[in-house]
Amino acid sequence: MKHTRMIALLVVAAGLMMLSGCAYVNVKSPLDVDLNQTTLGEKVGVAEAFSILWLVAWGDASYAAAAANGGITTLRHADQEVLHVLFGLYTRWRVVVYGD
Q: I need a labelling partner for 92 at 20 to 30 A (CA). Which of 43, 60, 63, 84 fits?
């Protein structure tokens, strides 16, 4: 019985290890469709939201919050960043906007 549990535990652990980004993910990507025509502008604004233990989340990662934080009135481009640690035990969403 103990041997069977150990094998089952090893199979589950091996399956979890095959999941992409299960321990740490830090991804940055543009939120734009025509990157070859993008002008960034002179100002940068950042807004963030967080989550811990899949139970508590706070923050405002909206374009409006990022633009207000950077003093931007005309948005030209936006990027997003997502950081996950241990299956999302800790998560950070960040929006970076560029403009004038």
A: 43
- CA–CA gap between residue 41 and residue 35 (Å, rounded): 14
Query: Are the beta carbons of 94 and 45 closer than 8 angstroms?
Result: no
Indicate yes or no: pTM above 0.70: yes
Strand, helix or coil at 53?
A: coil
Backbone angles phi, psi at 53, to 5 degrees: 60, 20
Residue type, 40: L
pLDDT tens track for 22-72:
678 888 988 777 767 777 889 999 999 999 998 999 999 999 999 999 999
Report phi then psi at 54, rounded to 5. Answer: 60, 10
CB distance 46 to 79 below 8 Å: no
